[in-house]
Write a structure and sequence with these properties.
Blueprint lengths: L5 E3 L1 H5 L2 E2 L2 E6 L2 E4 L16 H7 L16 E3 L36 H28 L22 H7 L5 H13 L4 E4 L15 E4 L5 E11 L7 E7 L5 E7 L4 E5 L11 E11 L3 E2 L5 H32 L1
Parallel strand pairs: 1-5, 6-9
Antiparallel strand pairs: 2-3, 3-4, 7-8, 8-12, 9-10, 10-13, 11-12
Helix pairs in contact: 3-4, 4-6, 5-6
The structure holds flavin-adenine dinucleotide.
Length: 328
């Protein structure tokens, strides 16, 4: 092969139907064959577009790493699966939220929301989704494209429904958690450190402690946290600590002496930075207390309100992705 895309006929492809010299047609393009599956009588030297798309996602051949597999196009035939231009709405029924599907519209959306949506979808299609797919494969940390900075020219951009929903179209939940979860609670990379091996649903059972130093200026934190999203690369840990028998206090702990994080390998995602976090006599200024001492449960639960809401937005979009992919 010389790497150039050739124009060939169906008959010419049919000549290449043996081990070591096997081509097949997928959506008006040519692909050199591998073994096993491609040596099947229904596949070798034939048009197996339908078979291929009954097993693969519609966008799989658009991935850059597979471009080299295309060696030609078929004379007189057109591609059936054309990629939509970046920023497009899906034509699949129920593949989009109702308020983006005319003639419906949301009473909460002004024209500016639709404009923002269109622009952000384009950014997702062109930058975020390809990176999400790459990072899920390599486990690389995501680049930080969102958040405060000179690019916002002083404007405040909230990680609300629109941004959460659009970024979930990547279909890579761990990547999105690593990308946005910190932004729900802070503008640096901030992990929410509540769960422990000792306490999950039962938050009030947690054992990580914070006691005041003798001069009353410092918290001294000891304990461990588990399954902490963003933990491996967080700058700060918004941490639930036991400060009395029945009282929890939220303390913002910077990464520093006594703070250690170890990655936890999960079936969920390596890109989310899930970590086991340990605090060993960590000294934190009392000014880092979030809310009132011993009233931390209220802080935790009020954060869950919007954090969990963000997760629901993501999950609903992931379900739309399934409808879209299945029917496309
Ligand atoms: C992908 C992922 C990311 C996470 N990220 C973070 C994070 O960033 N920060 C953080 O602090 N934590 C995080 N967690 C931890 C998460 O918050 C806990 O997993 C969750 O609170 C549940 O706790 P658990 O896993 O100990 O399960 P358990 O609490 O042991 O629950 C096990 C099962 O028992 C059921 N159950 C529990 N209590 C009751 C009850 N009273 N009545 C009836 N049924 C009950 C539950 O519904 C569940 O089915 C993450 C977890 C996952 C999976």
């Amino acid at each position: 092969m010389d790497g150039k895309i050739k124009l060939l006929t169906v008959e010419e492809v049919a000549q290449h139907n043996k081990e070591g010299d096997l081509w097949t047609i997928i959506d008006a393009k040519f692909h050199p064959g591998g073994k096993a599956v491609l040596l099947d009588d229904e596949v070798r030297g034939k048009d197996c577009t339908e078979l291929f798309y009954s097993l693969h996602r519609s966008e799989v051949l658009l991935r850059p790493q597979y471009a080299r597999l295309q060696i030609g196009t078929i004379v007189g035939e057109e591609e059936r699966f054309k990629p939509l231009p970046p920023g497009s709405l899906s034509p699949v029924p129920y593949g989009e939220p109702a308020w983006l599907t005319r003639p419906f519209k949301s009473p909460y959306y002004k024209e500016s929301h639709y404009r923002l949506h269109k622009e952000f979808r384009k950014i997702c299609d062109e930058l975020i989704i390809p990176e999400a797919k790459r990072c899920e494969e390599t486990g690389d940390r995501i680049s930080q494209k969102l958040g405060p900075g000179p690019h916002l020219k002083g404007l405040k951009l909230l990680a609300g429904l629109l941004l959460g929903q659009e970024s979930a179209r990547a279909g890579q939940r761990g990547f999105i958690d690593g990308f946005l979860a910190g932004a729900y609670i802070g503008s640096k990379v901030v992990a929410l450190a509540i769960s422990e091996a000792f306490a999950g649903s039962d938050v009030s059972g947690l054992r990580c402690t914070a006691r005041k130093s003798e001069d009353g200026k410092w918290w001294i934190v000891n304990g461990t946290k588990k399954w902490i999203t963003n933990g491996t690369f967080a700058d700060y840990f918004t941490t639930a600590c036991r400060t009395s028998k029945h009282g929890l206090t939220m303390i913002v702990i910077p990464r520093g002496p006594g703070v250690e994080t170890k990655p936890i390998k999960t079936s969920y995602s390596s890109t989310a930075g899930t970590a086991f976090v340990s605090f060993d006599d960590v000294r934190v200024p009392v000014s880092h207390t979030l809310g009132e001492v011993d009233k931390g449960l209220k802080v935790i639960l009020s954060n869950f309100n919007h954090e969990r809401w963000g997760m629901v937005v993501n999950t609903v979009q992931l379900m739309r992705n399934i409808v879209d992919e299945t029917l496309r």
